C-alpha cells in the first residue's frame, strides 16, 4: 500500500503563491497518473490537476494558467505550483496516486487565501 504525505499548505494573501508537495512511500515511476484534488466548503471534491505516466497534464478550467503540476520520479514526489492565488482557491488539497488496481489518497493540506 502506498502512503502519501502532503505539505506546503498555509495562509497566503490573494495574488500570492504556494507550492504543494506530495511524497510517496514507494516508487512512482510506473504509476499511471498522479493528481491534486481539492474540496472547498460547501463544494464537492474535484480535480485540480493531473499528470500521467507519459507526462501529459490536464487542469481544471478555474486554475489553468495559474497552477502547474510536475513530478520528480527520483524523489517519489509530485508538486503543485500555485500562482496568482484567489480566495476561491481556498480548500483542502489532496494528493492522489492512481495505479492499475486502486487509487491512494493523502491526508490533505489546508490552503487558505485571504487578505
Q: What does this protein structure show overall?
A:
With 115 residues, the chain is mainly β. Helices cover 0% and strands 51% of the residues. It has no helices and eleven strands. Strands 2, 4, 5, 6, 9, 10 and 11 form a seven-stranded mixed β-sheet that branches. Strands 1-3-8-7 form a four-stranded antiparallel β-sheet, with no helix packed on it. It is globular, with a radius of gyration of 13 Å. The chain starts with a strand and ends with a strand. 30% of the residues are buried. The mean pLDDT is 95.
Terminal Cα span: 40 Å
Low-confidence residue ranges: none
Structural class: mainly beta
Helix content: under 10%
Strands, total number: 11
Shape: globular
Beta content: over 45%
**SS field, number of helical segments:** 0
Question: Major sheet: size, sense and barrel closure?
Answer: 7 strands, mixed
- What's the rounded overall pLDDT mean? 95
Output the helix-strand order.
EEEEEEEEEEE
Radius of gyration: 13 Å
Jot down its keywords.
single chain, 115 residues, mainly beta, seven-stranded mixed β-sheet, four-stranded antiparallel β-sheet, 11 strands, globular
Amino acid at each position: 500500500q502506498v502512503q502519501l504525505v502532503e505539505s506546503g499548505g498555509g495562509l497566503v494573501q490573494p495574488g500570492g503563491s504556494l507550492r504543494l508537495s506530495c511524497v510517496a512511500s514507494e516508487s512512482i515511476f510506473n504509476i499511471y497518473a498522479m493528481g491534486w484534488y481539492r474540496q472547498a466548503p460547501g463544494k464537492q471534491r474535484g480535480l485540480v490537476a493531473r499528470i500521467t505516466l507519459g507526462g501529459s497534464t490536464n487542469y481544471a478550467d478555474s486554475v489553468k494558467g495559474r497552477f502547474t503540476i510536475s513530478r520528480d520520479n527520483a524523489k517519489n514526489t509530485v508538486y503543485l505550483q500555485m500562482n496568482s492565488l484567489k480566495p476561491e482557491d481556498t480548500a483542502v488539497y489532496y494528493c492522489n496516486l492512481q495505479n492499475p488496481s486502486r487509487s491512494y489518497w493523502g491526508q490533505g493540506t489546508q490552503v487558505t487565501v485571504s487578505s
